[in-house]
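During the no-cost extension, the postdoctoral fellow (Dr. R.K.) reprocessed legacy sequence entries with the updated structure-token encoder. One reprocessed record is reproduced below for audit purposes.
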Amino acid sequence: MKNIITILLILFSISGFSQVKRIGIPNIQNYPKAAYKAGTQNWGVAQDPHGFMYFANNDGLLRFDGRSWQLFSVSSTSNVRSVCIDDDGVIYIGMDDDFGIFETTTESGPKFHSFLDKLPDDIAETDIIWKIYDTQYGIVFQSYQYIFIYHNGEIQIIKPEKAFYYSFYVNNRLFFHEPGVGLFEYINGFVNKVPWAEELNDNEIMSMVSFFDNHLLIGTGQEGWFEYKSGKLEKWDVPANAQVDKDILYCAMKLNGNNLAIGTILNGLIIADSNGNIIQQLNRDNGLQNNTVLSLNTDNSGNLWLGLDNGIDYVELNSPLSYISSAEGISTGYCSIVHNNRLYLGTNQGLFTRPFNPLAQNNNEAFKLVAGTEGQVWSLKVIKNKLFCGHHIGTFIIEREKATQISDEPGGWTFIQIAENPDFAIGGNYSGISLFQYEGNQWKFVQKVKGFSESSRFLTEDKNGNIWVSHGARGVFRVSLNARRDSATNIKMYGSSDGLPQDQLNILLTIGNSWHISTVDGIYTYNPNTDRFEKDQTKNEMFDLHERLKYVEKDNQENYWYITESGVGVLLKNDDGSYTKLTTPFKQLSNKLVQEWEFLYVLGTDNVFIATEDGFAHYSSRIVASYNRPFHSFITRVDIPNSDTVIFPTEIQPQIRIPFQKNAFRFHFSAPFYQNPDQLEFSYFIDNYSEDWSPWSTDNYRDINNLPENKYVFRVKARNSFDIESEEASLSFIITPPWYRSKAAMYVYIFIVFILVLITAWFINRRFEKSRQKERKKHEKALRKREKEFEDQSLIAEKEIIRLKNEKLRAEKLSLDKELANQTLSIVNKNKFLMKINEELKRVSNETSDGAVKTKMAILKKRIDKEIDNEHQNQIFESYFEEVHTDFFKKAKEKYPHLSPKDLRLCAYIRMNMSTKEIATLLNISDRGVEISRYRLRKKLEISREVNLSTFLLNL
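Re-encoded structure tokens follow.
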């Protein structure tokens, strides 16, 4: 089933592509000189395979992508008069006295390659190149003086007998026209005069088109159109030709579907069918900027571009939407209806009407204001074949172009017919509801219903005869009427406490055969059993909306046409009872609807009228445009302001390298798409930088700054108003590192790091050595300390040993001193004893007279004297004293050389701490003599009496 639908859509698209709407004016987009910023006149129109539009302009070659204009200045002295683009996208342009190829995407920017160097030297001037064609013979350039055919790098030259006027390429046939000479055809390198065109010799042929083989329409400047078919040339006597005679033909082309577009000098554009019937006539009165059409061409969507004498216009022929607007005298739309073969449009300025036949629409007759309806029209409703018109000042019954006011109750919001009694109708107004009655084949106002005074814009009647009213700011009301329906007997208001999500923004809508409440939370229905509102899951699932439904109308094929807060859509019923949602054709109407007063009127699927801020849009399902046509995105230019550089991407783009210090870009991109270009959005992604695609934005450029050094790919894609995404465009580039992060710098850094490593290693080693030395010194110090401690301990030990030795020596000395003293005392005692004995012997000897005894006594006395010999004893004493007191006598003699031996002995005795008596005995003197000797010794030693003599001698 889906495949069949797809095939049908394709077929409808093909057939729709060939049709031009008769109702309303197609969408026209004006591009004045101020928009494209170039010359006023535009002599030629062409489109390249990528979709860009090019215009031959007085100031140069214009390029347009739907959003941005770009002027390529080719020559400062010559206008661009013609442009042609072949299937490979090569752009050929013709100028005043020059022609050639124009490249827009070279590495150095746009560039023009002139063909003048390919011409022989005898051609000094080429004259103005007015026409260029891509033919099977090559690229044909035509001026008044020459025909140049460029093929395989060479140029063939054809000269006229007098002067060429224009040339034409139709059905793969190439024609030249020389006024006064004839019409010629170029066939396989030969120029042949056309025999059947003698009648046209004195005319200026402006255009040639063909609807089928062996058929030609030839447009002239003097006599209009001629038709050649079946071997005969005849005047084309059709309505379009009669109009052309008045408006003066300048250019024409065949549209898809055998329609003819005719550009005139005096009255804009005429679109006619193949029979010459005028379908549309567009001029300054209904949308064009200028009435002189110098050039025209269609784009790949079948829409028409006009190069004007002042400006450029885009005519959206291939669209199911057209507009009845201010160009036809219609202002803001509020309601519409077709009744008795007349179309009625309710606006803020009154009710307008004109004849309307769905099968044979006549778009030429102007709308007329229905007299008496000037002002705001709110509603139109047919009840019992009578047309009600709800107006700001009351209610009217409309018959053709006549309005009869039947009520002056202000504000006729809407009207409903009473189901139980069709001869009665209820109307809602600013301050309640009114009762109308059908009587005598006429509707008349009965009275205003008493007891209810709320504004009643939305009305319906339930099965029990209750009137339901919704008020946007107050809530939903149920009004019960009395039997005569002239008074309200019971009124109940429903709001958030009765199941509705809130009290405000509730709209009463009739969906099919039942009524519902559209809320901010979806569609609700009334449950009489609970007297509450409940969410209608079936309707919510059917519409599948995420916003408030504001208007619904069901057509005779059970399709639902609706309006939401964001736009218009239709639910098309399928054979299986399901619905297919269609919103794409209505995207163009975004932001054009009358907010809070949305309205549409359906007269079959081919005639849907939608109220807009500037009148009405008309939708015809016969024209099924191809909305999923693929399109492309392009990166057109990259500005690098820090280096005053512009990059023009080419198809074979070398790697772009950008220094880090100049790391600032502005990427310009485009996506040639011309339907609703203001809704075109872009998204970009940067490889190795972005985490996700950027949010969609209408900006067609992007500034990128401060990227780190790396390889990048800038990608961009577009999304049109039909939610179709384009193919990506991409540009690779490299941000080179700054000098301090370049390869050379890296080598330097490596070297520096190496040196630093060496230095660091040296320092570390040095520190290690220092630490080791420090540790060694510390260890040595510790060792020295220990050695010192050992030495100190050893010294202490030695001192102790010495002390012990000294003590020992002192002990020995004391012992020797004692021994010496003992010996000395012993000698002293012995001497005392011997002296006593000697005195006894002397006394005995003196007493005895015996000589023998005396002799023996004398001998004994001698022996005793010998024993007490002081000299000998002194020597013995000194010898022993020197052993005990080493070098004492030597030191004493050296220091006090005037000491006598007796003095020295006295010093020795005093040093030995001997008493005066003991010294006296040893010296054999008295105690007094010892004291005298001690005194004398002090003198010799030069010491005072305060100094202890014994201590002095010990320290000597």
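The first strand starts at residue 25 and ends at 31. Residues 743-847 form the longest helix (105 residues). The remaining legacy entries will be reprocessed before the final report is submitted.
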